[in-house]
Amino acid sequence: MPPPGPPPFQPSADYLTSLAAEISKSTAEYGSSPSPNGLQKIISATQALNLAATGPMDRLFNLAFQAHINGAIRIAIGMKLFDNLPSDLSQSIPLPALASQCNSTSDFTLRIARALVTNHLIESPSPGAYAHSTVSKLVLTVPTAQALFIHIFDTMTHGMTYFGPYFAEHGYDSPTDAKNSPAAFARGYKDMSFFETLTRDPERLTAFNMGMGATNAIGAHVAATTYPFWELGEEGKTVLVDVGGGRGQALQEIRRTYPDMKGTMVLQDLKYVLDEGTLLGEDEVELCPYNFFEEVQPVEGAKAYFLKSIFHDWPDDSCRTILRNMKPAMRGHDSRLLLCETVLQDEQPIARDALRDINMLVIAGKERSVKQWDDLLQSEHFVIEKIHGLDGRMSAIIEARLKED
């Protein structure tokens, strides 16, 4: 006779009830005082109930097949499935018509749509008919959001599929060489940074640029409302230098949020980036070509130097180079260093942020915890004065100053 199987999975009803009560409690607290942290508590409580009600084997399969959901989304974007669903949320389209509009077969379209429906990405209001969900309508039809997903799947997830051989060869430690990352390894490149590898593939570069445009716009708004930039304003002073600021999305949002802010703002990036055009006029910002790895900061004595989503792209040693190049311009001027980055809690970080760190591991970058930020900055004689927005937001702003000798 075959050996007996495992006992049926039967979680305690009392335990499930206690977890459901925690959801109600978190929801009530959020209702009385809405905040990003409050939302995270609701998410954590619902996840705890979901996990408690899921058996070990189901949990294992859910983890193992997570990538397959992303694969279905990637196919759906490629075949324009989301774009061909009725824009009116109250309307649906039958499978044969959807397949025809996607230049596909009913069999193939069914397989993709079925995966999307069962994972709550689109709706099936009646048998054989499909419609947008709120998520697919608001997010997955937006070209920049589609580009971001293509970038994550085609580039970052592709790099993760090589984690096994990469770390077996290089050792199980955080990559320290930005020119030999898992992303470069996955495509057979050596001595080439992630950004250099993108230039070899125009399609991936386009997806990256479009996708980052979406995140930059969102991140610029978060940054502008997280830190009290108006306090920097002062007539006749250089009040803010946006280092590696691209086309000026962050400065544009800061200008829009604080239109009466006085003083000069400076936008810095590589010359070819600035030459492609910026979002701000000459009367709003000064342009300054700058390579933060190869040059000492040329603008001395600014009230603040702002670096948004720069450090997470690089390992610690590369970040130390950036910090060393900032110090001469800040020394003796009481300047502030403002880093807009993800900041993980040292204990029980949000799952989203912990996984973003694994995402950055692909390119030898790093999302850092409070302690890791403190250690990095202290290593170059900077001291953290305050972390603004450490409340569950996508990004916080670390305010630091240079220790004077």
Automatic annotation (TrEMBL):
<keyword id="KW-0489">Methyltransferase</keyword>
<dbReference type="Pfam" id="PF00891">
    <property type="entry name" value="Methyltransf_2"/>
</dbReference>
<dbReference type="InterPro" id="IPR036388">
    <property type="entry name" value="WH-like_DNA-bd_sf"/>
</dbReference>
<dbReference type="InterPro" id="IPR036390">
    <property type="entry name" value="WH_DNA-bd_sf"/>
</dbReference>
<dbReference type="GO" id="GO:0008171">
    <property type="term" value="F:O-methyltransferase activity"/>
</dbReference>
<dbReference type="GO" id="GO:0032259">
    <property type="term" value="P:methylation"/>
</dbReference>
<dbReference type="InterPro" id="IPR012967">
    <property type="entry name" value="COMT_dimerisation"/>
</dbReference>
<feature type="active site" description="Proton acceptor">
    <location>
        <position position="312"/>
    </location>
</feature>
<dbReference type="InterPro" id="IPR016461">
    <property type="entry name" value="COMT-like"/>
</dbReference>
<feature type="domain" description="O-methyltransferase dimerisation">
    <location>
        <begin position="63"/>
        <end position="141"/>
    </location>
</feature>
<keyword id="KW-0808">Transferase</keyword>
<keyword id="KW-0949">S-adenosyl-L-methionine</keyword>
<feature type="domain" description="O-methyltransferase C-terminal">
    <location>
        <begin position="191"/>
        <end position="382"/>
    </location>
</feature>
<dbReference type="GO" id="GO:0046983">
    <property type="term" value="F:protein dimerization activity"/>
</dbReference>
<dbReference type="InterPro" id="IPR029063">
    <property type="entry name" value="SAM-dependent_MTases_sf"/>
</dbReference>
<dbReference type="InterPro" id="IPR001077">
    <property type="entry name" value="COMT_C"/>
</dbReference>
<dbReference type="Pfam" id="PF08100">
    <property type="entry name" value="Dimerisation"/>
</dbReference>
<protein>
    <submittedName>
        <fullName>S-adenosyl-L-methionine-dependent methyltransferase</fullName>
    </submittedName>
</protein>
